[in-house]
Amino acid sequence: MEISRINHGWVMRSHAHVAEVEFTAAIANIAANGGGSVRWFVCEPNADEQRFATQHGLVADVPLLHMQCELPLAEQHRVPLGFVTRPFRPGIDDDEWLAVNARAFASHPEQGEWTHAVLNERLAESWFDAAGFLLHEIDGRIAGYCFTKVHRTNPPVGEIYVIGVDPAHHGKGLGRALTVAGFAHLSASGLRHGMLYVAGDNLAAIGLYESLGMRVAHRDEVFVGTVSANRP
User: What are phi and psi of 182, to 5 degrees?
Assistant: First the structure.
């Protein structure tokens, strides 16, 4: 069970089924560190995990779909002619990118509230590669981006970690172009397997990814609630 602070709350992630003692310990850890809102991501939860969530006041939210594809994408899915991206420049693009990200994810409980501190944490990760953080500009300003990540598994997998388009540029096909550009970058790096996560109610995005040949590998249920802080 992984526990991390995300902006004003907490995220718990289970990559395998957890026992009650492990789940209870995670909740106790959060309570001991001030409590707050909690989002628990668990892959294909069993009946026990459903019960753990209910007992601690967590309720089911929109699931997260894990989608996969083979790389490179099919021949017809190529970066549009004239569509250009450039690498993110740490320390230079931070402010502008954070503003675009906030607008792109204004209603998202996690991604929309990224701060300089959160961004700096990601830039300090061992997997971060500025060449894989692709920005697309219109009239000299960031209009959209595709942030990729490589998982050094066996075999390695390339992930579209976050993709966003400034609402001022919706309807221009940037989401599709950026997705294709991101996977093209990962493929050019030698990767043969791609993946991403998408909210289960984001039908437009799911339709886009399916049109590129992606398929749902599994779904993570998401349970949300609040954990009270321990009283001194």
Answer: -65, -45
Q: List, for residues 76-128, the tens digit of each pLDDT value.
A: 999 999 999 999 999 999 999 999 999 999 887 667 678 999 899 999 999 99
Look up residue 163 and give its two tokens.
């993709």
Q: Under the phi-then-psi rule, with left for phi > 0, alpha for psi from -120 to 50, and beta for the rest, what region is 209?
A: alpha
Question: Residue 15: how many CB atoms within 10 A of its CB?
Answer: 11
Domain ranges of the chain: 2-63+220-227, 72-191
CA–CA distances in Å: residue 82 to residues 40, 164, 178, 212: 41, 20, 13, 20
Q: Which residue reads 């490179």 in tokens?
A: 72
Strands 157-165 and 193-199: parallel
177, 164, 169, 232: which is closest to 208 by C-alpha? 177
- Identify the architecture of domain 72-191 in CATH: 3-Layer(aba) Sandwich (3.40)
3 forms bridges with which residues in the sheet? Answer: 12
CA gap 1, 45 in Å, rounded: 13
pLDDT digits (tens, 9 = 90+) for 162-197: 999 999 999 999 999 999 999 999 999 999 999 999
pTM (2 decimals)?
0.88
- Between the CA of residue 125 and those of 90, 187, 232, what are the distances in Å? 13, 21, 35
Gap between the Cα atoms of 218 and 41, Å rounded = 12
